[in-house]
Amino acid sequence: MNRARTGAVTIARVRGVALRVHPALLALALLDIFVAGRPAWWWGVMAGAVLLHEVGHALVARGCGLRVSAIELHLLGGRTEMWGTTSEQNLAAVALAGPAASALVGGALFGLGALLPGGAGEVTRFAAWLNLGWAAVNLLPFYPLDGGHVVRYLLAGALGPRDASAITLVSAALAAAVMMALSWRAGLWVLVAVGVYLLLLAYREWVRQGLPSFGSAWRRDRAARRRARFHVVRGDSSAAGE
Ligand SMILES: [Zn+2]
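Above are the sequence and the zinc ion SMILES. Below is the predicted complex in structure-token form.
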């Protein structure tokens, strides 16, 4: 079995794209089905929604000349691994393609759910809502969600890529902090943990993009204050000498 750097395991390969599943997701699904007794179709619908969303990203990425090497499903959703360079505009299109695919699948399932009778119709309508919900969640304007990538692209046009990344990542960290505080009050510890993970992701992306480290900014600041104090002292002494 082929293990990726992220720990995910390749379970299939379609047109050169590896389909990988993270063992933690697999373990949770198996426990939920065999211990907690949740029906297996529920996990099938979940995985299907995430997979089709990522396929949307992958298709548009290929259309933009990027190479897609893998689609990964993990505990918090999915990710599409892509390589190459393309315009910022194309990257925004790739980001929008996921929610667009989810919305299309959701709409189609609603139509199908109206035609199907009984239990099949119910499951289909549940899947429709799930896909539409997944589209909406991913459009929230915070990194690492797709909406965050689109906001970054829009800001980059006005402020340049560096400031756009900095603003996107700081707002992502603030959103994660607010989510953590609200979840803490509500006792939703899983969401507190998700918030910690999102903070780490934003920090890692900050470092990866070569944005200034907070330590270095503080050191630069301190050096500037020292220089300023030195000037003031010199000014005082020269004033005293006059
Ligand atoms: Zn997405």
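The chain has a mean pLDDT of 88.
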